[in-house]
Amino acid sequence: MKKTIISLIAILAFSLNMNAQQVHEQDPADHQARVFPMPVEHLYFHSEILDFDKNFTVYLPDSYSTDSLRKYPVVYMLHGANENDWEWANIPTFMINAKLRQSRADGMAAEVIMVCPNATEGTMGYFNREGWKYEDYFFQELMPFIESHYRIIADKGHRAIGGLSMGGGGSFMYGLTHPELFSSVYAISGAVPSSLNSEDKGNTPFSRQFNLGDLTEAQIAEIKTVNFVLDCGDDDFLFDANVACYQSMKKAELTCEFRSRNGGHASYYWYDGLGDALLWFTRHFSEQCK
Questions:
Q1: What does the alpha-carbon distance between residue 20 and residue 23 come to, in Å, rounded to a whole number?
Q2: How far is 209 from 88, CA to CA, in rounded Å?
Q3: Tell me, what's the pLDDT at 203?
Q4: Any residues with CB less than 8 A from the CB of 253 and at least 6 apart, and which?
Q5: Taking burial as the number of CB atoms within 10 A of a residue's CB, which of 211, 233, 261, 268 is the most buried?
């Protein structure tokens, strides 16, 4: 509970400061030689924690500009290694937006604000290590900025996180270590630990070990309020680790599902996974925000 209180205080403190943060549009010429007529914002601001400018992309619902009083759930989707916020899963912006619209048009998924951070500028990875306090940046700067500058329902019940590969491992671990913030997690082809009872505390750019034995009963009970999915293709080199991680979660009586389709560690699998994730998030928002 102490860790939970500290996390919430840190986010509140930074949210007060972030209102004064100067935000800028990215130059499309740095990424793609075209601009799509869609509600997508490619932005950056200077991170005091990382000490350089950090890019991020925000996908807005079609109704965002016409319904000025409406607030939306938020989904954070973390990219994989050597990718960036412009091309999540190496999928162009217009295809991501098409998937968001398709899910909404089917009447199955809520309209959401989707945020894609960038974890490759400077170095790579979603976890804190020497010279790279990315996790601090994410929770103390990026999240407060997003949730104070957009019309977001800023509570656990309307906040979800997911990702692929390196980002799948990041989203999975963020859900475990900050369960007070997220209602659901959808890790696609995730670089997840094979066990939740590891004594190894080492971090890599792709994954971090985790030991439930270090937690109190109250902390474990809070993790049980988060709904997890591990989704990994049957030909993926991370398949065995995902199966073992799922088994470890079930043994600990955490709320988790395992899903697998025919496929490997590839963009086509992740694109389909994005659609499934949007449905999963909608199912676990506090209200059906349709």
A1: 9
A2: 25
A3: 65
A4: 224
A5: 233
- The DSSP string of 53-80 is EEEEEEEPPGGGGT-TT--B-EEEEE--
- 8 forms bridges with which residues in the sheet? none
> pLDDT averaged over the chain?
88
Predicted confidence (pLDDT) per residue in 241-274, tens digit: 999 999 999 999 999 999 999 999 999 999 999 9
Q: How far apart are CA 146 and CA 140, in angstroms?
A: 11
Domain 2-26+41-284 has CATH 2.30.30.50: no
Q: Extract long-range pairs of 204-212: CB within 8 Å, 24+ residues apart.
A: 204/125, 204/127, 205/81, 205/123, 205/124, 205/125, 205/127, 205/166, 206/81, 206/125, 206/165, 206/166, 206/169, 207/169, 207/173, 208/127, 208/169, 208/173, 210/173, 210/176, 210/177, 212/252
CB 7 within 8 A of CB 138: no
The 3-class SS string of 167-234 reads HHHHHHHHHHHCCCCCCEEEEECCCCCCCCECCCCCECCCCECCEHHHCCHHHHHHHCCCEEEEECCC
Provide CB contacts within 8 A for 19, sequence distance 6+.
148, 149
pTM: 0.86
Q: What percent of the chain has pLDDT over 90?
A: 67
Please count the other Cβ atoms lying within 10 Å of the Cβ belonging to residue 253. 9
φ, ψ for residue 5 (rounded to 5)? -60, -40
- Token couple for 246: 């799922």
Q: Please, which pLDDT band fits residue 209 given cuts at 50, 70 and 90?
A: confident
- The pLDDT tens digits for 140-180 are 999 999 999 999 999 999 999 999 999 999 999 999 999 99
Map tokens 């999915």 to a residue: 229
Give the pLDDT of residue 196. Answer: 87
Whole-number pLDDT of residue 36: 46
